[in-house]
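ligand=zinc ion
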Amino acid sequence: MARLSILEFPDPRLRKIASPITDVTGKIATLADDMLETMYAAPGIGLAASQINVHQRLIVVDISNEKNEPVILINPKIIATEGEREAEEGCLSVPGFYEPVTRPARIEVAAINRNGEPYTMVAEGLLAVCIQHEMDHLEGRLFVDYISNTKRQMIRKKLIKQQRQQA
Ligand code: K1U
Ligand code: ZN
């Protein structure tokens, strides 16, 4: 297993649209394992392949306190939604900032697992928020796209300053 480095806003590579995975090979299973290790180490509750500069449709999530309920979603698709809910979101690619975002409260998702088998799952609460947030990454969208331009520019400037100081 390996820890991968996470791209940070405003890196333009975070804006790329990810391609579908056509074959779930051992390489994809290893990538999913590396993404889980990277997510747990960060620490985070989700990670999209786009965040580690791999532009393929793969996300991982685990909202359990014990970090023992990993979910791997390959080519995830939302097939049904219900209701609306506002919740605070954070992002490992936008470190240190949290903002409220409104999204569907309950979703049904179709995906493929690490063995290449299709499945569906229903998610609500934090799990629904996290899956939708990660799926946005695959479209090159970030939670800061849902907030005001003024706030987004402020976050952008602060992160650029931090990144210059760390370089
Ligand atoms: O996409 C990411 O960068 C992961 C992100 C997922 C997420 C969190 C909250 C709402 C929506 C999506 C994070 O994991 S940010 C870190 C975080 O929220 C967290 C970290 C440790 C424990 C609990 C939460
Ligand atoms: Zn994120």
